[in-house]
Design brief:
This protein is of the alpha/beta class. It has two domains: 249 residues, TPP-binding domain (Rossmann fold, 3-Layer(aba) Sandwich); 56 residues. It is built from eleven helices and nine strands. A hairpin with a 5-residue loop joins strand 4 and strand 5. Helix 6 packs parallel to helix 10. The chain is elongated.
Length: 313
């Protein structure tokens, strides 16, 4: 799909330059990310040609049907067989996109990451301001007593994992189809979007709700889309880049920010220069005053001699 920027004949370098400028002039950035943010970490997305929904599930059921609430309740064993094979990637590591967002947060510009992913990679990379819309595979709990379990416990269990305290079924703390998102997460996401001066949407097809509608809460059009495929927001966005999320963010987010020491050194240097200027100005003023005094004194002396000569006569 042709975008506004594409029609102007802009090349990739121009788009990256524009994104750099947008980031530099913004101080309240919100990032909305989807599965495309984690594909470079070896985790497949859902809707692309090689995505989870378009590959064999290993069962007679479609992947999209398996990760639904009713299916989980009625066919828990089949759900877990698919879940452990297709949705858990314990060895995945943060990629360039995750690391770039950490830099942006530490520079004080990124105020919130709204993620649809359940892989915990943003937190593992070091991000603090993460809103998980769909939960995390790294959190699990007993449906009967509420006891919490980590991913290792779930993976180690044969078939359906059961609570070692009460024997209840342990389920992942993720939002399945037919389930509602936590109201607090949605509210926090909308509040962050309303306050932002730049919204970067990356690695998502914008077909999952309510995340697909968050941009409507913006009071401006400062939206950047970074995604390999087109989205319904492409023509509405200020800038659209069809490329790898990691490559784009790694290039456009500064690697470093001025250190406190450098800032202090600049301040001290400026203070020294100011003091030196003041000292020089004071010396010049003093020199002028001395010169004027001396001049006046010398002009008065001949007059005094004339008076004394008159008295002698």
């Amino acid at each position: 799909m042709e975008t506004r920027i594409d029609r102007l004949g802009s090349v990739r370098e121009d788009k990256l330059k524009q994104l750099k400028e947008l980031i530099a002039e913004s101080n309240n950035i919100v990032f909305l990310g989807g599965a495309g943010v984690s594909t470079e970490s070896g985790i497949p997305d859902f809707r692309s040609g090689a995505g989870i929904y378009n590959t064999e599930s290993g069962t007679k059921y479609r992947p999209i049907d398996i990760i639904a609430h009713d299916f989980f309740m009625e066919h828990t064993e089949i759900f877990y067989d698919f879940y452990k094979r297709k949705l858990i990637y314990p060895d995945a590591k943060p990629n360039k996109a995750h690391k770039a967002l950490v830099r942006l947060e530490r520079q004080g510009k990124l105020k919130a990451i709204i993620t649809q992913n359940i892989d915990n990679l943003h937190q593992e990379a070091g991000s603090k301001c993460v809103i998980e819309l769909h939960g995390s595979v790294f959190r699990n709990y007993c449906m009967d007593c509420g006891k919490k379990f980590d991913t290792e416990y779930v993976v180690a269990q044969e078939g359906v994992p059961h609570c070692d305290k009460c024997g209840g079924i342990v389920r992942p703390d993720i939002v399945l189809y037919e389930e509602n998102l936590e109201h607090k997460n949605v509210d926090d996401a909308i509040k962050a979007v309303k306050k932002c001066d730049l919204m970067i949407i990356a690695g998502t097809s914008l077909t999952v709700y309510p995340a697909a509608t968050f941009a409507q809460f913006l009071k401006h059009n400062r939206i950047v889309i970074i995604n390999k495929s087109s989205t319904y927001m492409d023509l509405k966005a200020l800038l659209t880049i069809h490329d790898n999320v990691g490559d784009v963010l790694d290039f456009c987010v500064p690697k470093r920010r001025p250190s406190v020491r450098k800032k202090t050194a600049v301040k001290k240097s400026t203070a020294k220069k100011t003091t030196a200027k003041k000292t020089t100005a004071a010396k010049k003023a003093a020199s002028k005053t001395t010169s004027k005094t001396a001049s006046k004194a010398s002009s008065k002396k001949p007059a005094a001699k004339a008076d004394s000569s008159k008295k002698s006569k």
